[in-house]
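Running this now, will post back.
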Amino acid sequence: MYLPNIYHMEKTIIIYSSLTGNTKKAAESICEIIGNNKNFFSVQEAENIDLTQYEKVILGFWVDKGNMDSKIRKCLKGIKGKKVGFIGTLGAEPQSAHGKKVYEKAQLLCSKENEFLGGYLCLGEVAPKLIEMMKKFPLKLIHPYTEERKARIEKANGHPNNEDFENIKKYFKDIL
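Update: finished.
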């Protein structure tokens, strides 16, 4: 049984942005590792938090156009001199070429003015309103609704799931 270290509970904050609730659930699973929900905030709630009391910042984001969503990117601009990690959800396989590019971009942003702790990407269900938007895109746009995309979206349904949450906890237990 893992017993959280008091030091980590007082020094780690989790800030997330979630469009469908996927990223919030994924980020919440990390609270079990730090043993405390008091340091768990939406990006909107975190705007008024003094980050000087935290050594480590875990950012939760959903992938938008191959990058961290804009709210988390904006939040990250105000984080300097911290140890920063991330949990991201996307509607594609994290090990795919797209997933690897997302990871690289997020790592670069997190390490720009901070020490990079590590990051974890997992499948996340795609919002129905985004699927409807994709169906209207011309085929030459970045995210047209093709048969291949439809298959990826269907595979992402139900994620993150319990297996994902266990993998997230294991990963963050190791880096925190």
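The chain has one domain: 6-125+160-175. More later if anyone needs it.
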